[in-house]
Amino acid sequence: AKHKQLMSSENQTYQVLHVDLGERSYPISIGEELLNNTGLLTQQIKGKRIVVVTNTVVAPLYLAALTARLTNAGKVCSAVILPDGEEHKIWNSLMMIFDHLLEQKCDRKTTLLALGGGVIGDMTGFAAATYMRGVPFVQVPTTLLSQVDSSVGGKTGINHPLGKNMIGAFYQPQAVIADISSLKTLPDKELSAGLAEVIKHGAIIDPVFFDWLEQSMPRLRARDPQALSHAVIRSCEIKADVVRQDEREGGLRAILNFGHTFGHAIESGLGYGAWLHGEAVGCGMVMAAELSCRLGYIDDVVKTRIRKLVEAAGLPVVAPDLGEQRWLELMEVDKKNEGGQIKFILLKPLGTAFITEAPKDVLLETISYCISPTP
Ligand code: NAD
Ligand code: MG
To answer: Which is the catalytic residue, given 32, 190, 197, 237?
Structure first.
């Protein structure tokens, strides 16, 4: 995302980032009150026929106002309201979207608009990729996680009983509209989960952004709109830049998995849903920093800064005791592994990430220390 523009309409200024993916390029608009900005909505949402896909939690908050604005702007709107939750990111919900599209005789020009968090975004994107072999798709992410992470990069999909995100497609949206004001209604725990991915972006790419996060964490948790806007903009720029260089996950994109090898082990070890993904990633980054430090890639000071920032974001920093053997097993099944060796994203130094393997003894020391850290 190289070109960033400051735009202004209806007394609101907002930023537009251009994600540069050749003919699949698209703009991400980030700012306050964008869902109330008819000018921006009509400019960014091109088609006439819109089907909004949302869920039972988000619909009562934002659906009526959004459809009223779109209708006033001359669009023809209808909505599919799905049950809320990761457990509904499944085939059945996808079918509910297709049922609606076919019943309403929606054609190839119908635009699907995802209004909600990452679950809605991933499912709607996959529905858009496959309905009539592809229809236009716009994302309106309403969680911090979806604004900084899942709405950038073009991964869409659903879960299978045998694995998370196992069925899907790469499919880029026509536009992303991230309204910072929608974060006001987000539960604290969900805000913290989104902050984990924000911290990750600083840790792997941008030490200046990491410094800024250390200074700004209280403002972010108080939902200061200016601080949140900056965090979302910088995160989208960083992720878009990585994705631009590696759209289909051939190599570089793997650095976005910093904290995720440990994090995935926590999620599946405790049972999905026990910790939020962002919570597991927060703790996973503390563990990856510990491993980086034990292997001599970063010093104690950096390691401590990472733990303090994760803690300040309201995220867990002490690892669950799953048992040594179980920890190893869980990390070995991580889907990013090739040839049985566990791959880790480590830091050297702060702001630079690389992929490597780790000696088993150091790994076990890291896990046992992170389960019961001593000052
Ligand atoms: P989510 O979509 O489940 O949203 C979290 C909760 O917040 C839900 O209950 C939701 O209904 C509610 N909510 C959403 N917006 C709200 C608002 N403004 N106010 C109040 N409540 C609101 O979870 P998420 O963290 O946004 O996304 C997680 C999903 O994203 C996972 O399925 C994950 O696999 C996926 N993901 C995808 C990518 C990708 O690249 N496609 C990247 C990261 C995560
Ligand atoms: Mg993640």
So the answer is: 197
Which ligand 1 atom is at minimum distance from the Cα of 157? 41
Q: Are 202 and 210 in contact (CB under 8 A)?
A: yes
C-alpha triplet 180, 198, 353: angle, nearest 5°: 155
Six token digits for residue 118 = 């990452």
Q: What pLDDT shows up at residue 1?
A: 46
Nearest ligand to the CA of 93 is 1
What would the pLDDT profile of 184-216 be if each residue is shown by its tens digit?
Answer: 999 999 999 999 999 999 999 999 999 999 999
| Cβ-contact 291, 277 below 8 angstroms | no
Q: Per-residue confidence at 72, pLDDT binned at 50, 70, 90?
A: very high
Q: Cα-Cα-Cα-Cα dihedral of 286, 287, 291, 297, to 10°?
A: -20
CA 172 – CA 169 distance, rounded (Å):
10
CB burial class (10 A; 0-12, 13-18, 19+) of residue 330? buried
> Are residues 91 and 127 in contact, defined by beta-carbon separation less than 8 angstroms?
no
Q: How far is CA 252 from CA 20, 128, 372, in A?
A: 16, 27, 33
Mean pLDDT of the chain: 94
Instruction: Quote the ligand 2 centre to 222 CA distance (angstroms).
Output: 23
- Token couple for 6: 């400051």
Residues in the chain: 375
